[in-house]
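ARCHIVE CARD
CATEGORY: sequence design from structure
SOURCE FIELD: tokenized fold
FIELD CONTENT:
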């Protein structure tokens, strides 16, 4: 039997079935659990959630006079979707369970690699459900977003960089993981609350779900699309939006990113040719993250651009991105993202292995080659913020015949 009670009456030993309000309204990524931890109880009481639903069969009861008793059901009626949070009035920040301890790139790398594989399997399973016409469940998405957000908060470069190494046949799934991670990182750079960062991540995870409703022969075509095929491909935002909206569980900002991540600031995007502030904050964020991951990934019809070169090219696309959002994105990912081949003033060649927060031009690098001797040198790491050496330019690995750049930065030393 389920009972709806004021949150102030919550006690240890109660089984929490759900909380009223959207996911943004409470500090937990899960909603069904036994209240055992006093810290969880304190976070719940201080969260601002007005009412909770408890299952008195699975946990502690309250006097009948204190609650509204309903017949036993699987879950209480779903609340209406939360409105899109405006940039000027962000939603309240939820109570944090515990601060996330920052990690170095090296420390987070192995953990991020395992998380990436797990996330890919979960996203593939969810998207296959969508392809079969079944509803994607929010409760299946939230743990994935929470894991990705945790990795980004520990070190944003590790997961985002590894996700760029996706294979052509798992592009759609890993693209969703990568955009989720970048949305969280960009949200943090923009000063959004952790709850908003999670919701931005959820929007990134599901932004391309409409591609699962596009015929495979068009989605995976290795060559150029015909005009009719391109029209079908351009329908994926609307297809995804309708599928998510029909589920009735996803908040409006998530639906909006799915529908409008291909809009452009100058009004030349699709499907609705929105301009400037007509495009929501989350969709402007999604546009940048979606494009960056697309151009830095190998696709059936083109090879990936290098990370720093992609940033430079995107900066020249007038009218495509919101300038302030793009600037924040560059700060979040770095002028020289992890994996960028750079030439140092000392004449050495190095690959970027981590960022120095607040010091965009002095990343941490792995030195491996001398242009003076034209020979490999002992591989070692250098923090350019702590030395007199500096980056004088980025280089194209193909020009130098370096085929092992990804191995250099993605493998622990």
């Amino acid at each position: 039997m389920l009972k709806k009670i004021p949150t102030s009456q919550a006690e240890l030993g109660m089984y929490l079935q759900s909380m009223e309000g959207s996911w943004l309204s409470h500090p937990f990524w899960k909603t069904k659990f036994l209240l055992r931890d006093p810290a969880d109880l304190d976070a719940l009481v201080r969260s601002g959630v007005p009412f909770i639903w408890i299952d008195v069969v699975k946990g502690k009861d309250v006097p009948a006079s204190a609650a509204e008793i309903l017949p036993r059901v699987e879950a209480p009626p779903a609340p209406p979707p939360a409105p899109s949070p405006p940039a000027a009035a962000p939603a309240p920040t939820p109570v944090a369970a515990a601060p996330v301890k920052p990690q170095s790139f090296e420390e987070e790398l192995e953990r991020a690699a395992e998380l990436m594989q797990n996330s890919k399997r979960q996203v593939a399973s969810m998207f296959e459900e969508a392809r079969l016409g079944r509803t994607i469940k929010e409760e299946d998405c939230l743990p994935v977003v929470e894991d990705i957000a945790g990795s980004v908060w520990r070190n944003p470069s590790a997961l985002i960089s590894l996700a760029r190494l996706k294979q052509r046949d798992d592009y759609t799934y890993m693209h969703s993981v990568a955009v989720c991670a970048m949305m969280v990182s960009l949200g943090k750079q923009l000063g959004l609350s952790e709850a908003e960062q999670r919701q931005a991540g959820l929007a990134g995870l599901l932004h391309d779900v409409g591609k699962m409703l596009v015929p495979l022969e068009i989605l995976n075509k290795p060559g150029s699309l015909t005009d009719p095929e391109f029209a079908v491909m351009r329908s994926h935002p609307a297809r995804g939006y309708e599928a998510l909206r029909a589920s009735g569980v996803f908040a409006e900002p998530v639906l909006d990113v799915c529908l409008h991540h291909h809009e452009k600031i100058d009004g030349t995007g699709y499907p609705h040719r929105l301009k400037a502030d007509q495009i929501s904050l989350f969709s402007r964020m999604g546009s940048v993250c979606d494009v960056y991951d697309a151009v830095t990934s190998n696709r059936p019809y083109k090879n990936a651009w290098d990370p720093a070169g992609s940033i430079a090219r995107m900066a020249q696309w007038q009218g495509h991105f919101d300038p302030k959002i793009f600037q924040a994105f560059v700060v979040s990912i770095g002028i020289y993202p992890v994996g960028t081949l750079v030439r140092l003033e000392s004449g050495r060649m190095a690959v970027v292995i981590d960022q120095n927060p607040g010091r965009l031009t002095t990343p941490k690098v792995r030195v491996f080659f001398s242009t003076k001797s034209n020979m490999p040198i002992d591989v070692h790491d250098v923090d350019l913020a702590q030395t007199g050496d500096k980056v004088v330019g980025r280089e194209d690995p193909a020009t130098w015949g370096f085929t092992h750049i990804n191995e250099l930065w993605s493998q622990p030393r």
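CARD ANNOTATION: The chain has a mean pLDDT of 85. The beta strands are 2-6, 15-19, 33-34, 51-55, 68-70, 341-344, 348-354, 364-370, 375-383, 391-394.
SHELF: design records, drawer C
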